[in-house]
DNA sequence: ACTCTGCTAAACATAG
DNA sequence: CCTATGTTTAGCAGAG
């Protein structure tokens, strides 16, 4: 038990480095520095974004309420007018309605506030209603447009200033800022859409496509910002509710629950028009919704959902010869229906997941850079909007997408170290980076694609790489040649200079006691003695004082205990960080699993096909520890073995013993 | 300045 | 003899 918790704390130490973003606060010492920087960054970002947001002055909910109020007012006015037999000359609509109106005085005298829309409908004749609606529609649209225009101006202003400021900052920072702004923009669009929906819902706006394309055409379409999902689906369930309550009491609360259901109809409108690439105000904003999306071929005459001659609608891939055909296809196959909306929804989730991922990774990068003192690394606002979205992400147990987006996220950009370490080339003595390799499997897992393709020297020591290679296999043993293969398979860098690094590998295998050569039937294989490996690690863990401290304190109680904890820390933590786990959505469900897998450090990398079922995990782990017990190198264990022995079993408990039993026979084979 | 660690190079040994 | 595999030594460099 105690061990468990202890290992937890240890685990947190490396995490301070690796998962800086989230756990920054954890690490003390130097790690703490990085963490502090990271958090500071986040905070600043939040501020900035908050500022951007607050520029709106009105929250979506507020705006909606305001509009509802307006609608009510108009309605009241209308009723009053009708009741008093006055028809306002300025109101062209009133012409038709005036004659038809026979509003019971009793009703008219009722305070209009008491009227629900339904009541109004009962009271008013269709023509009257229509007139009313049109009137309101016009009014609201005007208001909306004014509001959004203002918003956009502000946004653009901000964007400009930010871009200028951003020039001195790292590209990615700028990119992120832009992203933030794009998101804001999208958010705005979403807002508009949402309002439209609300109007629609309230029956205040009829949504004939034709009509919608009229004055409303600038409102919805294209990008549905995932960030707004919650909003969208929650209806106006925004934080500030007081106004809403009052509105509801006034009777116009059609929205409430219905919202959730109806709002769903929103996205669909997205599909039909292809001409709408302009932004809300018709301004050809610089910020195209998905300007740097994968579809670079997005030429003027193209459609975001059309590329390489096929429909890019998720899961569609229908071939279309030309744009026209595609559009036809789009309108027929992906019209506004349940399926399309559902797909749209899923896509939103996907995007949202990606954005969350991006935010996390960015944050981590910042923290890493800060920690490395690579740059001033001012706090970047970028992560902010995403952060918000992340916070909101699944507010109300919305259908978490079947993790659709979850797993596939494979960051393909250079690992944390940034350009500095990328000068790979020559006799890179990037040992320093070894600090960061503590959670090697995590780092590897996350950037595995990157290393695989980029000719960049991995920031890991040969020893750790070899270990990783070995541990990745089901039986945690490899021949020299297999190790070579692993290197070349996993790292583009090791496809060159073979003589050099192979020599180094051999050298390391021989040199380090942690690598144990085991004679096999068909030759010799190499295994890892975790205990030895961990034993020599502590001094290296400069990056995480916490860990070192723990190790030291642990040593005082029992050397092995500490090293064992360290082993635990290293072997288990990375898994929590493995790509799949990064997704908040899936994390919760996966975590338990990962915990089980703790024993299999190699796990994260699927490449090897290794991995035996999870059940192996506990055994696996002890297995590693157990390796030392191999008869082959009994000599090594002798010294530390006995002394360390006692504490060890106590921690691992029976598992280890069991493993011993399992292992020994196998080993004795040789 | 010293030590530790890691990398590279190279010499050497051994087995197939 | 050649090659693959291991072992060992030496020098250099970065970091604490």
Please give the alpha-carbon distance between the first and last residues.
Answer: 37 Å
Helix content: 55-70%
What count of helical segments does DSSP give? 30
Low-confidence stretches: 1-68, 78-133, 159-182, 194-299, 375-438, 539-670
Oligomeric grouping of the chains: single chain
Q: State which percent range the strand residues make up.
A: under 5%
GO molecular function, one term: DNA-binding transcription repressor activity, RNA polymerase II-specific
Subcellular location: Nucleus
Protein name: Forkhead box protein P4 isoform X3
DNA-binding region: 457-530
Please sum up the structure shown.
The protein is an all-alpha fold and 670 residues long. It has helices at 2-18, 20-23, 29-54, 60-83, 94-100, 105-109, 117-123, 126-166, 171-201, 209-212, 229-234, 242-249, 256-262, 323-333, 338-372, 383-392, 418-422, 440-453, 462-472, 480-490, 498-511, 530-536, 545-557, 559-577, 584-597, 617-627, 634-638, 640-644, 647-652, 654-669, and strands spanning 306-307, 310-311, 515-520, 523-528.
């Amino acid at each position: 038990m105690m061990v468990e918790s202890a290992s937890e704390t240890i685990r947190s130490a490396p995490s301070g480095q690796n998962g800086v973003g989230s756990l920054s606060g954890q690490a003390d010492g130097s790690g703490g520095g990085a963490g502090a920087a990271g958090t500071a960054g986040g905070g600043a970002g939040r501020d900035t974004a908050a500022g951007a947001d607050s520029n709106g002055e009105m929250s979506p909910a507020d705006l909606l309420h305001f509009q509802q109020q307006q609608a009510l007012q108009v309605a009241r006015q209308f009723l009053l007018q009708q009741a008093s037999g006055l028809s306002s000359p300025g109101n062209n609509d009133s012409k038709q309605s005036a004659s038809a109106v026979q509003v019971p005085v009793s009703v008219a005298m009722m305070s209009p506030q008491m009227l629900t829309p339904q009541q109004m409908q009962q009271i008013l004749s269709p023509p009257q209603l229509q007139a009313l609606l049109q009137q309101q529609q016009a009014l609201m649209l005007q208001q909306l447009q004014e509001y959004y225009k203002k918003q956009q101006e502000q946004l653009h202003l901000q964007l400009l200033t930010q871009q200028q400021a951003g020039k001195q900052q790292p590209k990615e920072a700028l990119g992120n800022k832009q992203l933030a702004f794009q998101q804001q923009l999208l958010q705005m669009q979403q807002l508009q859409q949402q309002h439209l929906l609300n109007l629609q819902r309230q029956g205040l706006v009829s949504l004939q496509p034709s009509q919608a394309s009229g004055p409303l055409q600038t409102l919805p379409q294209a990008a549905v910002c995932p960030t707004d999902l919650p909003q969208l689906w929650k209806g106006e369930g925004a934080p500030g509710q007081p106004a809403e309550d009052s509105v509801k009491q006034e009777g116009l609360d059609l929205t409430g629950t219905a919202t959730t259901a109806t709002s769903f109809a929103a996205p669909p409108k997205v599909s039909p028009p292809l001409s709408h690439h302009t932004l809300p105000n018709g301004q050809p904003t610089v910020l195209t919704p998905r300007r740097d999306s994968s579809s670079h071929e997005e030429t003027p005459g193209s459609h975001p959902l059309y590329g390489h001659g096929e429909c890019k609608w998720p899961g569609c891939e229908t071939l279309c010869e030309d744009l026209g055909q595609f559009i036809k296809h789009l309108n027929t196959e992906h019209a506004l229906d349940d399926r399309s909306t559902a797909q749209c929804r899923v896509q939103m989730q996907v995007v949202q997941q990606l954005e969350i991922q991006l935010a996390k990774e960015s944050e981590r990068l910042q923290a890493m850079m800060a920690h490395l003192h690579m740059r001033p690394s001012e706090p970047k606002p970028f992560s902010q909007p995403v952060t918000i979205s992340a916070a909101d992400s699944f507010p109300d147990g919305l259908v978490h997408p079947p993790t659709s987006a979850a797993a596939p996220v494979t960051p393909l950009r250079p690992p944390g170290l940034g350009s500095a370490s990328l000068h790979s080339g020559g006799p890179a003595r990037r040992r320093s980076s070894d600090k960061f390799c503590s959670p090697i499997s995590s780092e590897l897992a996350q950037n595995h694609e990157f290393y695989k393709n980029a000719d960049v020297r991995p920031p890991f020591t040969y020893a750790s790489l070899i270990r990783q290679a070995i541990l990745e296999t089901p039986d945690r043993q490899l021949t020299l040649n297999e190790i070579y293969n692993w290197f070349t398979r996993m790292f583009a860098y090791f496809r060159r200079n073979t003589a050099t690094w192979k020599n180094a590998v051999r050298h390391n295998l021989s040199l380090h006691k942690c690598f144990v050569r085991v004679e096999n039937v068909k030759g010799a294989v190499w295994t890892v003695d975790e205990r030895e490996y961990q034993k020599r690690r502590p001094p290296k863990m400069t990056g995480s004082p916490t860990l070192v401290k723990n190790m030291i304190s642990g040593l005082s109680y029992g050397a092995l205990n500490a090293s064992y904890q360290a082993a635990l820390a290293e072997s288990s933590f990375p898994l929590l960080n493995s790509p799949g786990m990064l997704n908040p959505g899936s994390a919760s469900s996966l975590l338990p699993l990962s915990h089980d897998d703790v024993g299999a450090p190699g796990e994260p990398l699927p490449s090897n096909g290794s991995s035996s079922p999870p059940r192996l995990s506990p055994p696996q782990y002890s297995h590693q520890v157990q390796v030392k017990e191999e008869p082959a190198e009994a000599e090594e264990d002798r010294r530390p073995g006995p002394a360390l022995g006692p504490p060890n079993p106590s921690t691992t408990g029976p598992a280890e013993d069991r493993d011993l039993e399992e292992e020994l026979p196998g080993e004795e084979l040789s």
